[in-house]
Amino acid sequence: MSYGGGYGGGGYGGGGGGGYGGGYGGGGGGGYGGGGGYGGGGGGFGGGGDRMSNLGAGLQNIDWAHQQLTKFEKNFYVQDPRVTSRSDKEIADFRAAHKMTIQGQNVPRPITTFEEAGFPDYVLSEIRALGFPSPTAIQCQAWPMALSGRDLVAVAETGSGKTISFALPAMVHINAQPLLAPGDGPIVLILAPTRELAVQIQAECTKFGKSSRIRNTAVYGGAPKGQQIRDLQRGVEICVATPGRLIDMLETGKTNLRRVTYLVMDEADRMLDMGFEPQIRKIVNQIRPDRQTLLFSATWPKEVQRLAMDFLHDFIQVNVGSLDLSANHNVAQHVEVCTEYDKRDKLLKHLEKISQENAKVIIFVGTKRVADDLTKFLRMDGWPALAIHGDKQQQERDWVLAEFKSGRSPIMLATDVASRGLGTYHTTLPFRIAVSPIWVGPGSSHED
C-alpha cells in the first residue's frame, strides 16, 4: 500500500498447490502458438475453508441507541443548471430511451455528461485522463442519487458500469470527512461476493483515488492475511471485502467499522446466492445506522428486496433494463446445438477461425474437472490455454488473469467463479460449454 501510485492490499503470495511450468505445450495451434506449461493447484474456494456456520459468532451486537454518534456530511449534490433547464418530458424521454425506471420520493434528475454530475475537479481530471467518452445509463442516474446522500438501490445488468457508479461518489464522501486517526477503521466499506470482484473494485478505487491520496485495501480469503492486516492497521479510507475474511478481521481485532459512513453491497444477489446473508447481517450491525447505504444488484428477487428493506432507510431506486438476470445487450449471442461427441471439434473450428485476429477467448464450463481436462486437451493441441477456478490458489489465479490480460495466454477457461464480476479485458469471443448434451456458445448467457 502506498500513496499516489495506487494503494491496496497487495500480498498475493504464499500458498503452495501445484503451479505452472513444464508440462504441456508445443505445436502451432491455429496461429496462436504453444508454449508455457500447465499444472494443478490447491487451495479452496471462498477463503481457505471459511467456517460459514460459525462466522460472526464472536462479534457482539452493538446497541446503537445508546451510542453517541458524531455528525457527518453526506449530501454533496448541487443540480447543474443544464439539468434544471430540461423539461419533464425530456427527462422522461431520456429514461425511456435507456430503459430506466425509478422508485421513491424526490428522486434527482439524471445527468447526461460527466460535467453535469458536479464532481470536483480532482475527480473530473481522473475521468478525462482515463478517456471515458460519456457516462453509462446507470451512472447517469445513480451519481445524482448517491451524491445527494440518499440510500440507494440500483438494479442493472452485469457490465453496465456499476462499479464507477458507487466508487466516484465514495471519493467525494471520503474527502468531506475528518482524517483517519490511529486505530480508525475505514470510512467506506464495499462488500463483494468473490475475491475476483473485490480485486476488480479495488483497481477502480485506486485509479480514482490517486489524486486525493485515498488509500484502499482488498480483504478476501484465499490469500495470505499478513499484507491485508498491515494495510488495515496503517489505516485505509476504503476497504473492499468479502464477508468471510472481513468477519475474521473483525473478530480478531485487526480492524473495526466505527468510522464507516458509506456502505456498499455490490452484487447483492450473488452474495445471497452464496449463503452470505447471516454474515452480511453481522457486519451491518457493526456499522452506525445513520450511514449511507448503496445496494447494487443484477436482479431483484424477494430475498434482495428483504435485505434492502432491512438495511436501507427511505431509499430511492433505479432499474436499468430487466429486473431478471441478463447479460449486457451490447453483446451478440449465438447458440449452437450439437452432440456431446462434436463439442470439441466445433470449439476448435471456432478457435481456428478467430486465431488470426489476435482475439482473446473465455470458455466457461460447468465443473472444475472439465476446466482442467479441456485445458489439457487444448494445450496438447498447441493452444495457449489456462484455467481459473475455485481450486486454484489465489497467487495462481492472479497469474492466470495477468497472462490473459497481457495476451500472452489469450484463451482462458473458467467455472462460475469467474462468471460475474470478472473484468474480461476486451474479450472478443466468450464461449459457454454446456455440461450435456449440447454445446452452447459463443457468448451465451445460458446456465450450465
UniProtKB/TrEMBL annotation:
EC number: 3.6.4.13
Domain annotation Helicase C-terminal: ranges: 346-448
Main location: nucleus
GO cellular-component term (any): nucleus
SUPFAM superfamilies: P-loop containing nucleoside triphosphate hydrolases
SMART domains noted in UniProt: DEXDc
PROSITE patterns: DEAD_ATP_HELICASE, HELICASE_ATP_BIND_1, HELICASE_CTER, Q_MOTIF
Domain Helicase ATP-binding: 143-318
InterPro entries: DEAD/DEAH_box_helicase_dom (IPR011545), Helicase_ATP-bd (IPR014001), Helicase_C-like (IPR001650), P-loop_NTPase (IPR027417), RNA-helicase_DEAD-box_CS (IPR000629), RNA_helicase_DEAD_Q_motif (IPR014014)
Subcellular location as annotated: Nucleus
GO MF: ATP binding; hydrolase activity; nucleic acid binding; RNA helicase activity
Occurrences of domain DEAD-box RNA helicase Q (ranges): 112-140
UniProt cross-references to Gene3D superfamilies, sorted A to Z: P-loop containing nucleotide triphosphate hydrolases (3.40.50.300)
Source domain of life: Eukaryota
Motif Q motif: chain residues: 112-140
Enzyme class: hydrolase
Keywords: ATP-binding, Helicase, Hydrolase, Nucleotide-binding, Nucleus
Family under the similarity heading: Belongs to the DEAD box helicase family.
PANTHER family: ATP-DEPENDENT RNA HELICASE DBP3
Full protein name: RNA helicase
Taxonomic source organism: Papiliotrema laurentii
